[in-house]
Design a protein that fits this description.
31% of the residues lie in helices and 24% in strands. With 366 residues, the chain is an alpha/beta fold. β2, α2 and β3 form a beta-alpha-beta unit. The chain is globular and about 65 Å long. The relative contact order is 0.15. It binds nicotinamide-adenine-dinucleotide.
Length: 366
Amino acid sequence: MAKAVDGVIRIGIIGSGGIAKAHARAYKEIEGVTIVAVSDVVPGKAGAFIDELELSDATPFTDHREALAQVAMHGVSVCTPNVAHHRTSIDALEAGVNVLTEKPMAVTLQQAVEMEQTARRTGKILTIGFQPRYDPNMVMLKELIQSGALGKIYYVETGGCRRRGMPGGTFIRTDLAGAGALADIGCYSLDMALNPLGYPKPLTVSAVATNHFGTNPTYHREADKFQVEDFGSALIRLEGGLTLNFKISWAMHMDTLGATMFLGTDAGLKVTSAGSGPWSGVWDGGVGSVTMYHDLHGSHVETHIPVKQHTVKIFAEKVKDFVGAIQEGRPAPIPGSQIVRNQAIIDGILRSAALGREVDIEIPEL
Ligand SMILES: NC(=O)c1ccc[n+]([C@@H]2O[C@H](COP(=O)([O-])OP(=O)(O)OC[C@H]3O[C@@H](n4cnc5c(N)ncnc54)[C@H](O)[C@@H]3O)[C@@H](O)[C@H]2O)c1
């Protein structure tokens, strides 16, 4: 659907749970945007959401396909559990509607590929909701790395982590979430490491995944239902001679899995997380410090790069960028073509961990 005659951008929301509220509030802040439909499979939930958020132009639905068929929309936010991102995004794209889907992109690599293929075929926007990209420190990191100041980057290490941050419900079921910490916060860490590098293609991965805490009733109140990993570690080879050492944790007897590091032939960049509480990973807890090292000859030059204050609310910014892309006819701000590689790594980690050996990562033609 093209831009409405009255110039108003009409938005639908699919899945009206926790994060949908943040989407709705962000859309409400943008002038010339109105939410016209909300769907949720739980009867009554979309209506209650509309009332709570005072969405006076919105109609409730229990089936997103009916919403897409009955209400003219420019875009939808997909805020369902991971398992439904695939079907709902494809149905919206096929209906000619642009899509902002929540992270992770999907549950399997094949689903992510199909989503991106549909976006290409329909010519509609498919953008994935990684709001840390709008953190000014993340923007600065990308600019620094892309400037070539580090020379050739040959090794990256990153460890997104929480000390005590295991969710429950749909997040711990393999069929609904796909994976645990890997899907929930690992996809962020991968995006933060790979986006500044232009998303090089992953080739192989050797990984382990464990769930010592989620399955222990001392640590998790739904231990009997806990099917996913709460810890993962992987060595990923990427094109261009780059290696990524990746660690992820929802729970551990440790304050941090260490700094994020980019090692280059001309300089090294170290990024530490802000704070040391239960949510301590970069970016989960924000960026605490950024230091550049040039000290191979013993002259030890360290440059502390001032961390930037957030001048924007990053969640609102991702929603605004989606609306801006619709209005201006721009491509997807966070394109599926990149995030398919993110999903391919998660898929590879799970396969490698299950097999107990290194596996190839093969991404089908998009
Ligand atoms: N970007 C972020 O900061 C952030 C934060 C939290 C969650 N998330 C992501 O958002 C998604 C939703 O998480 P949540 O915490 O809001 O979950 P939630 O369980 O609170 O809400 C999901 C809602 O979707 C509904 N639903 C399920 N299948 C549906 C379908 N086919 N059509 C319509 N509605 C459907 C459920 O009934 C539920 O109301 C997940 O993918 C999660 O990873 C992102």
